[in-house]
Amino acid sequence: MEREEKYMQLAIAEAKKAEQIQEVPIGAVIVLNGEVIAAAHNRRETEQNAVAHAELLAIEEACEKLGTWRLEGAELYVTLEPCPMCSGAILLSRIQKVTYGASDPKAGCAGTLMNLLTDERFNHQSEVISGVLAEECGSLLTEFFRSLRDKKKRS
Q1: Alpha-carbon distances of 100 from 21, 24, 55, 128, 135, rounded to whole Å
Q2: Is the pTM of this model over 0.85?
């Protein structure tokens, strides 16, 4: 678990970058052969783009770096369980393993609402590891939304 925690800490650092720019604090890193090849954080509000999720931005960066859409052998570390859109991109990019921190009871598709990543009806599946540094990942989100609600109350 030590390896997973090391890379999840990097994803948490990305999530904190999102928080600094008033984005929902979600971060992702992609690792291939022990090397971080991509890192990203949510930019949906900044870019006013529904698909600017941390996972998708990291996948895009990794594909550009490698010069291919096939990320076979790659591992994705993300602070929040992937949504259906991100899970689809993970499968289509052939990511081998997904490790996430906090579960998402509203949109989680890596084990909570459903598990798209291990569904054998698809031509690719990803190994899933959940709950790595879950408390730290979850508290980032909880504190962010608490702060937003407090600001709304004061205005």
Answers
A1: 22, 16, 11, 8, 11
A2: yes
